[in-house]
């Protein structure tokens, strides 16, 4: 094996899909693939209470996506983050309790036929006096974000919008607290099922409807009332049925920002899909906060850094040096 | 026809079902039936843009449920409220704009083969400076509630919890304002689809979980965050998966009450399903408001009073007096 060969197999393995990368010795992407082999489809026909059957299903899904890489580069270490490390995953990689450093010095090794896959643990705020929370997969994005920001020592609030948006407070490399809003999931449920989905017709992009929704979501009548509010607007002819989803997007994002933004959030960084970040940036600007937006492709950077911190790349070096 | 015969055919005809009653001359229930012939199933195979096809479908559904009554008592008037009077209904009965008296002096007549069905209009708050809203069907419950309360002249806040909970402010027989929270629909979506439905297993009644949810919903982190909060509680072993629905019920109801209860609500009356009213009463008590609870069977009372106010029963008297 030469110095220019692959150095790491890295996976973002979530609820609905898998993304896998073959990374070079500088962390650069040599090859990439994605498959719909997430937790749901992988465990579809498996009794989740049977750890062996579960492990066999995950190993088969892993080999389907990465089998040729494992065969061609047997000494290359592998790392995965996301729901693959949950209680319903291949192996439960657990949670680190906040305040927690993101420089994990150890990962959870899962032996398989062709080697070992190292799973990244999630983070948790324990339930107690104050409300608990959990995240898994986002810790890897966070690591990538902090590196991209040059590992700031001052407090940063990292917002990762999505199905379950995360608002993470970080200080000097430590996650001090975080909260989740299931905004994206509510958007999906409301636009796919229920009365608003029957009102909406062939959605179109409508920035004015989104901004109108943002203004409604800032009011104090609550999400359950402002979301319903789309219906009278359509009945009154003020909102086109095709614009209802964008209106709802505005209502939900404004509601989330209203509740989770704190006065102490001096620096806010958004990382996620471009259009979603643009919408959150508008909602934050509406609150007088100028956010920095980072591109979504921060995950490989996070996986690379986690692998490095846990010594996976040194191991490999040592192994390749031995005869 | 004798004085002891039926005086009114009354229907509560909503989105998912029909309830029909044959009422005696004092408004008492002589016969009752219900069928799953709501707006959805009635218009399932109908092009909604074709008013004739739509009317034919509604007439067929009406006759299936009430045909024998129509044949046996041809002179008896008929009234219906609910989504049957919506834009996707038999005929659009429109909306009265608030502030509106509930003593409607006219209804919307829909002729059919065997006579005329009188449709009750809904109520609307127009969209403008302040947010708009609509209700349809609940105006009939309101009429029944106000009669049951002895037509109070002082301000009353009537809360009708359900799929789309209504908070209606009434003063001296006039509806001055109202707001809708789609709390029941959100509960249904979250427990039937999405991540929380996968966490919940064979729901059981759990009052402690409900009360814990109430406390969480009172916090200021927002519905999208507190609903997700059920998940870490389950992962931490604090909440049993089977208790998740009751926890969520508490979160959603407390969130609704927090947002829609006003300092000016001096008298609050709850009307709806018994268990749901009990839960709302607890959430209100938590805010220092003691609510009066009325039983759900207020609808026939409302329909009877609406028919009386619109002169339907006099018409019949006149007709029966003519040779």
Automatic annotation (TrEMBL), chains A, B:
<dbReference type="InterPro" id="IPR042258">
    <property type="entry name" value="DGOK_N"/>
</dbReference>
<dbReference type="InterPro" id="IPR007729">
    <property type="entry name" value="DGOK"/>
</dbReference>
<dbReference type="GO" id="GO:0008671">
    <property type="term" value="F:2-dehydro-3-deoxygalactonokinase activity"/>
</dbReference>
<keyword id="KW-0808">Transferase</keyword>
<dbReference type="InterPro" id="IPR042257">
    <property type="entry name" value="DGOK_C"/>
</dbReference>
<dbReference type="GO" id="GO:0034194">
    <property type="term" value="P:D-galactonate catabolic process"/>
</dbReference>
<keyword id="KW-0418">Kinase</keyword>
<dbReference type="Pfam" id="PF05035">
    <property type="entry name" value="DGOK"/>
</dbReference>
<protein>
    <submittedName>
        <fullName>2-dehydro-3-deoxygalactonokinase</fullName>
        <ecNumber>2.7.1.58</ecNumber>
    </submittedName>
</protein>
């Amino acid at each position: 094996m030469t110095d220019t060969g692959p150095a790491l197999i890295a996976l973002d393995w979530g609820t609905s899909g898998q993304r896998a990368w073959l990374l070079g010795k500088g962390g650069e992407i040599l090859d990439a693939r994605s498959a719909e082999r997430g937790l749901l489809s992988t465990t579809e026909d498996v009794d989740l209470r049977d750890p062996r059957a579960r492990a066999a299903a995950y190993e088969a899904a892993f080999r389907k996506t990465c089998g040729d890489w494992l065969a061609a580069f047997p000494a290359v270490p592998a790392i995965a983050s996301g729901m693959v490390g949950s209680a319903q995953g291949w192996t439960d990689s657990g949670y680190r309790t906040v305040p927690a450093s993101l420089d994990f010095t150890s990962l959870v090794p899962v032996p398989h036929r062709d080697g070992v896959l190292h799973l990244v643990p999630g983070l948790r705020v324990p339930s107690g006096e104050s409300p608990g929370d959990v995240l898994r997969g986002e810790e890897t994005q966070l690591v990538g974000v902090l590196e991209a920001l040059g590992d700031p020592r001052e407090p940063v609030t990292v917002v990762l919008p999505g199905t379950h948006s995360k608002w993470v407070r970080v200080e000097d490399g430590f996650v001090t607290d975080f909260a989740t809003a299931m905004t994206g999931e509510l958007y999906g449920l409301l636009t796919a099922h229920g009365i608003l989905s029957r009102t909406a017709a062939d959605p179109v992009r409508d920035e004015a409807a989104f901004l109108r929704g943002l203004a409604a979501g800032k009011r104090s009548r609550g999400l359950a009332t402002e979301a319903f509010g789309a219906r009278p607007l359509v009945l009154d002819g003020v909102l086109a049925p095709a614009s209802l989803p964008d209106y709802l997007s505005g209502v939900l994002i404004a509601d989330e920002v209203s509740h989770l933004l704190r006065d102490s959030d001096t620096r806010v960084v958004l990382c996620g899909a471009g259009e979603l970040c643009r919408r959150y940036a508008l909602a934050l600007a509406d609150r007088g906060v100028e956010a920095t937006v980072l591109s979504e492709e921060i995950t490989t950077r996070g996986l690379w850094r986690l692998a490095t911190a846990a010594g996976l790349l040194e191991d490999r070096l040592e192994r390749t040096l031995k005869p």
